[in-house]
Amino acid sequence: MKFIFTCISVLIACSSLAQNLSVTGKVVDSLQQPIEYANVVALDPETKSIVSFSISNTEGKFKLQLIEGKEYTLKVSFVGYKTFEQNFTPSQEMSENIMIQLAFAPEYLNEVQVVQEMPVMMSGDTLIYKAEAFTDGRERKLEDVIGKLPGMEIDENGEVSVQGEKVNKVLVDGKQFFDGDTKMATKNIPANAVDKIQVLKDYNEVAPMNGMRGEDNLALNIQLKADKKNILFGDLTAGLGPDTRYLGHANLFYYSPKLNLNLIADANNIGDRAFTIQDYFRFNGGLANFTANSGTDINISNESLGFLMADKENARDLSTQLGAFNFTYNPSKKWNHTGFTIASHSNNEFGSKSVRTYLREGVDNTELLVSRLNASNQSGLLKYSSTYTPNINTHIQYAAFGKINTLESVNNRISQFTASENIITELDRQYSYSIDQQLMAYHTIDEKNILSLETNFKHNLQSPEFNVASQDNLFPNLLNMDADSMYQLFQNKEIKSNHLLGEANYYRILTKKNHLNFSAGFNYLKQTMTSALRSSEGEISSEVPNQKFYNNLNYQLGNVYSGISLKSKLGNFTIKPGVFFHHYNLSNFQSEFLAEQQINLILPSFYGKWELSSTQSLSFRYTTKAEFADIQKLAEGIVLTDYNGLFNGNRFLENGIYHSGNINYNYFNFFAGMNMYANLSLVSKMNDFGNQISFEGMERINNVVNLEQVNESFQSQLGVDKKFHLFRVNASANFNGYKNYSYVNESLNRNQSFNQDYKAAIQTTFYKQVKVEAGYHFQLNSYESDLADNSFVNQKPYVKLDWNLLKNFDFTSDYYYNAYINQGTNTSSTYKIWNATLRYRKESEPWDFSISAYNLLDTKGVRRDSFNENLISTYEYFIQKRYFMLAIKYDL
């Protein structure tokens, strides 16, 4: 804390040495009416480079940060008006209320040159940035360009926000790049290829559906420079370091009017994840979930989600390989073909020590666990779609998306519980694949009537295996295993799912601002599951005689529904109330017993948005959903989930009803240089699925039941970004918590969690060469139940430096300090991470040389914590040791 405050004080003191003025004014037309989105720039009269830039707000106001007494060229432009240009020298007497009047010139409306000269312009609902007006040539990837654009933010995962609203898709020259995935675009597209960036509001690639669904959808269109078209461009990177460290990366791009090709390849063992397992689960291939708003949610479990996610801060060793290819082909104006394939492989090594406190009554409830885990992951994604648009009124699209994933881990553990020690080996294998096909058709009959038809078929197979070998007897009260050697259990499962969905919509346009939407659809799910447990005593393997450890069941869920909604725009207000009528048929056959159920439900929804101004909005969304369990929660046969954990489902589970509300506020002010957002989400779950946990010593059996109590959760975010003279300050606060219930040894247990996450940072640049960012990150995670009460505190101050040395050298460094406290056990730890890179690149040359160092202080491990209704855990993960890397990059 003292370190961060000292840095901030020094930066503020240094800034006061410069004689900066805030020059304010107003842009109006000949009728003295304010002009919004006018570009106001101050140029250096000699170099013609932009020194300060502003965009007029709804009142026509602008603000420039300039040095008193220095001469500038003031230039103001807006499409359809003559450009104002005049030299001036700012002073205290003339720094406020400068009035600039632009003369209307309709002959300029079609001149491309005007658009090219303006750093930012507004064309209808499209906001356009000229990239070179905000960059200095040192940017490497698209993410570096986006981070410098006013009103835009990008996080470390490549997710982009514009004026506080999340970007859903990224296009390149109007065509999807890896199906619009923002991370693949921001992390790989070269910065020197970017000409303009367009912000497309209410984006919909289906022309007949523009404005029909009423959903906020934001997209970026990256326009390439003219010299990057019809040629192959990109970059190649290769690096080596001691201890056989290596890095190889390639980005290759080809763009032409009819054919676009993109190739990304990466291989390294330094922990840089070009494509993570989180990306694999997040990547849905772009197949639209058109039934999402109807109110039915089927929670299909994914076995692979239980695998530990690898990154630099929890893996001791991490090597990855990636190959990705994307194409778009337009043989004619009517046909469009696009697709991609992504293949990735990783090998990870984890090491950890943890203290686990089991939430049960009794003195002996703490376990010390040492783990060494090796994990490998192989995954593949394949997508193809074809679109036929014979005219502007008709849109037909077919898409197919496939995923395949193989995960394997070997975990060697030493468990100390009470006075005993147990040696455990776990082998976990997960194999899964899915095929998803979709056919969609949209047609505008006339200006008053629109039809749509959407169908989707999904096939999924999961085949997980879990084997555990233990020095001690496993589950002695359920399994009669008696041997002098290692005890072993082999659990296998196979789950097949077929999911068919369809929905038809008729839109009746009442007026330009009002329309009705009539919907009818069906949702059919069929699942089968088999599982068995085998045991081994010594070298003899046999099936467990207890029939409670077997599953063979069939589950079907049928749903037909209809609904109606009204979308209406009343001035600055947009509302969309709706209601859906559902009929469900459920059948569950297992153990020679058939259970059937029929349910009728009415599920309402509401969406509203208040556009206070073009840069300020407040939206509200309320939905009601019926949540249904998938086959794994219904299977009553016991399944082995951990070396000390078992699970069995409940065939008589009923559906839950979830009420959720979301309020979202966004505000952006070019004049004040401020971006602010706030949102709040509340979820109330009635008849929810809850755990019924039975402990015996350290071993536990989890069952699932419908709860009479209401489970509740909330999530809230607040954020502000403000520019001052030489500084940019941003701060955010995230809050999330829940209150849910579970049964522990037949006693009702209330679990409450409240997590607080605060971030603050300040950035400044000295002499246009040294960029410094200092920040502070504070986390407080609290957990309370009838059996435990604990809190964890993390404090993370950091400093980042980007220094343009001499002319061709660039030095970057980041330093993180972490102080961790477990308040329940009164234990604490600290660790520090310091990374640095020195890069050399001569202007106008394609070569780039760098030397990098990671973990210069050779930190051995980091702390983490987690909690749920079963246990509270505090981990220490061992991380990669210090390494160095020499890399060479070549721009094609």
Quick take:
With 892 residues, the chain is mainly β. 4% of the residues lie in helices and 64% in strands.
Describe this structure in words.
The protein has about 900 residues and is mostly beta strands. It folds into three domains: about 1-105, Sandwich (Immunoglobulin-like), CATH 2.60.40.10; about 125-230, Beta Complex (Ferric Hydroxamate Uptake Protein, Chain A, domain 1); about 430-890, Maltoporin, Chain A. The chain is about 5% helix and about 65% strand. The protein has six helices and 51 strands. The strands form five sheets. The protein has a 35-stranded mixed sheet that branches. Strands 8-9-15-16-13-14 form a six-stranded mixed sheet. A four-stranded antiparallel sheet has the order 3-2-5-6, with no helix packed on it. A hairpin with a 2-residue loop joins strand 25 and strand 26 (about 450-460). The longest helix is centred in the first third of the chain and has 14 residues, at about 1-15. The chain is globular. The two termini are about 45 Å apart. This is TonB-dependent receptor. Pfam families: CarbopepD_reg_2 (PF13715). InterPro entries: CarboxyPept-like_regulatory, Plug_dom_sf. Keywords: Receptor, Signal.
